[in-house]
TrEMBL record:
<keyword id="KW-0560">Oxidoreductase</keyword>
<dbReference type="GO" id="GO:0005829">
    <property type="term" value="C:cytosol"/>
</dbReference>
<dbReference type="GO" id="GO:0030267">
    <property type="term" value="F:glyoxylate reductase (NADPH) activity"/>
</dbReference>
<dbReference type="Pfam" id="PF02826">
    <property type="entry name" value="2-Hacid_dh_C"/>
</dbReference>
<keyword id="KW-0520">NAD</keyword>
<dbReference type="GO" id="GO:0051287">
    <property type="term" value="F:NAD binding"/>
</dbReference>
<protein>
    <submittedName>
        <fullName>Phosphoglycerate dehydrogenase</fullName>
    </submittedName>
</protein>
<feature type="domain" description="D-isomer specific 2-hydroxyacid dehydrogenase NAD-binding">
    <location>
        <begin position="28"/>
        <end position="202"/>
    </location>
</feature>
<dbReference type="InterPro" id="IPR036291">
    <property type="entry name" value="NAD(P)-bd_dom_sf"/>
</dbReference>
<dbReference type="InterPro" id="IPR006140">
    <property type="entry name" value="D-isomer_DH_NAD-bd"/>
</dbReference>
<dbReference type="GO" id="GO:0016618">
    <property type="term" value="F:hydroxypyruvate reductase [NAD(P)H] activity"/>
</dbReference>
Amino acid sequence: MDRLRERGVAVTNAAGIHAPSIAEQVLGSVLTFARNLHEGWRRQQRREYRHYQAHELGGSTVTVVGLGAIGHAVVDRLQGFDVDTIGVRYTPSKGGPTDEVIGFDDAAVHDALARTDYLVLATPLTDTTRGLIDAAAFDTLPPESVLVNVARGGVVDTDALVTAIRRQSIRGAALDVTDPEPLPEDHPLWNFENVLLTPHNAGHTPDYWPRLADIVAENLSRLDAGDSLENRVD
């Protein structure tokens, strides 16, 4: 970066292009647990036509950790589901699309977790967020809560998660990312019926290249006009 800066070369990235697909996967995970669709799938595999209990998403509280492009997209897609939303971000004074916005203060975070039905992790992995959802966090979350992680595996203490699942301290988890990653074949997370695992796949979309091209085209226009570049990182 220093060498590029010395030569006057601007650097941009593709931040935000995965937000729609990841947000849709989050919503799919939340609705799967809300309606217990994974239990329906298991009964179909056994050709077992027998009713089971389900929940409703409406009236729930969804806490979204990280209010970047992905977090915003998740909250946008929750509109119309009659849920309360809490956002967690580094600078809560900036506000956000959620009903309530808090920072990473321990007391504020645990107060939010105690009210959370669905916890969505969409934050970068930093010194602040590494191990954020630890044993104490699982103790604070209600037993009916569901964890959805589309951030990085290191945001969650994996051993604490396994313990919480075994003790039924939470209702389940949908994990697109894990720590370690890839998850070893003998890891206990593979064996829980209330854990949905996908191989860091939430960002996949056939629209990846068109969205990338849109950013490049927009920045070419801005460069010609002498305007500031989109997604500049230097």
